[in-house]
Design brief:
The protein is α+β, with helices and mostly antiparallel strands. It has twelve helices and five strands. It has helices spanning 2-5, 31-50, 58-70, 80-94, 104-115, 119-139, 141-144, 154-235, 240-265, 286-291, 310-331, 369-379; strands at residues 297-302, 336-343, 346-353, 383-388, 394-401. Residues 1-28 and 269-276 have low confidence and may be disordered.
Length: 408
């Protein structure tokens, strides 16, 4: 029965940290270290109670060491030490050997078994041990030659039973509490990792957005500058006035490019820096965009124009800008029509050019123009398609959803 008290120190078990354990917890003691410690506690404790080594008999030493020795296998067989240490403690008590902490190994074994998720089996073995103690110490005490002074009283048996229940329940409660704490720690770690991943995704998306903005701005204006520079060189001698107009267009395009690049990079500025003063590119500047496109281009507006959300307004401008840039790259100065349609369901864009021949002097694109336009549209819940026309030209069609009446 005293063996049942041993459950309270089972947390010294030498098994590796269980799956529910906190990964940051200290590594448990080794099986050999715990076994040696339990042996020293039992032997030296009994020696202190007995007063000398004279009382030690071979059988007494065997019973004192049986429990500690079997603790060596407690990781592989969590319940076996409970049975062996319990049997040794019962035999030690009934044989009337000197008192002391001879049940310490049983305490370690019981707690270890409970913490190894074997609470039911440990309780069953402990109950069986208590029953065996009753049978050997009271029912069959005369047949076994147990002296009256070594027989347990009813009060002692009741106390042992109560202590056993409290220890098993307490050990199980401690195990469950540690499981909950470990789960909370894991959940907190997972939440922190998810937060970090979300921050990384947002930063990556922001970088991608800035890259698309710069691609659209630089690609559009540089190709326009290239076209106008070619015109200026061609007309420099024969038509100097027209060459002057081309140079003026180059100046305007380069200034516009610088302004838009500053506006895009302004998103990276510190909070205490002044905000960009120029308006963000949007449909309000569509006429200027088509007029400076460097190719024959007309704008058609269908429906009643209305304010749209800033994201939709900016995306529409960039899609048209990139589409015009692609026309110059792949179809030279082909006639192009830009159609903007306002509908209750959203904003419809269509950029269609007639057949043309690409100017070899115009720099080729990076290959991310169409994917970038499509990403802009899809980010707003819209769609974008690009395909050749029946006449041999090309068209880009986009739909950007925006409820009627939504303000910028």
């Amino acid at each position: 029965m005293r063996h049942q008290q041993g459950r309270q120190r089972g947390w010294h078990h030498g098994g590796g940290p269980p799956s529910w354990g906190n990964p940051e917890r200290k590594k448990p003691d080794s099986p050999a270290g715990v076994a040696v410690f339990a042996a020293l506690v039992q032997v030296l404790g009994v020696r202190a109670v007995a007063g000398s080594w004279v009382a030690f008999e071979p059988l007494m030493i065997v019973l004192l060491l049986a429990g500690p020795v079997v603790l060596l296998v407690r990781r592989l067989f969590p319940v076996l030490p409970v049975a062996v240490a319990g049997a040794a403690a019962i035999a030690y008590t009934l044989m009337g050997f000197p008192g002391g902490p001879y049940f310490f190994a049983l305490i370690v074994a019981v707690i270890n078994g409970v913490r190894a998720d074997r609470a039911i089996r440990v309780a069953a073995v402990a109950g069986g041990g208590l029953l065996a103690y009753v049978l050997a110490g009271r029912v069959f005490a005369d047949q076994l030659g147990v002296s009256p002074g070594n027989r347990p009283s009813i009060t002692a048996l009741a106390i042992i039973a109560l202590v056993t229940i409290v220890m098993v329940v307490g050990a199980e409660g401690t195990r469950n509490r540690e499981i909950r704490i470990a789960e909370m720690l894991r959940a907190a770690a997972e939440e922190e990792r998810a937060r970090e991943e979300q921050d990384k995704r947002q930063a990556s998306e922001e970088r991608l957005s800035i890259a698309r903005e710069l691609h659209d701005v630089i690609g559009h204006h540089l190709s326009l500058i290239n076209v106008q520079a070619g015109v200026g060189l061609h007309l420099m001698d024969s038509r100097p006035e027209q060459a002057r107009s081309a140079l003026a267009a180059i100046k305007t395009a380069s200034s516009e490019a610088l302004r838009e690049v500053r506006a895009v990079l302004g998103a990276l500025a510190e909070e205490d820096e002044s905000a960009p003063r120029a308006p963000a590119p949007g449909l309000a500047r569509l006429d200027a965009l088509t007029e400076d496109a460097g190719l024959p281009c007309r704008t058609v507006v269908l429906g009643t124009p209305r304010p749209v959300p800033a994201g939709v307004d900016r995306a529409a401008y960039r899609i048209v800008q990139e589409a015009l840039t692609n026309v110059r790259r792949h179809a030279g100065s082909a006639a192009t029509t830009v159609t903007v349609g306002y509908t209750p369901a959203g904003l419809d864009l269509r950029v269609e050019n007639q057949p043309g021949v690409a100017d070899p002097g115009v720099p080729r694109g990076s290959g991310i123009g169409l994917p970038g336009m499509r990403a802009r549209a899809e980010a707003l819940g819209g769609t974008l398609a690009a395909e050749p026309t029946a006449s041999g030209g090309y068209m880009v069609v986009a739909h950007l959803p925006t409820p009627e009446g939504t303000a910028a």
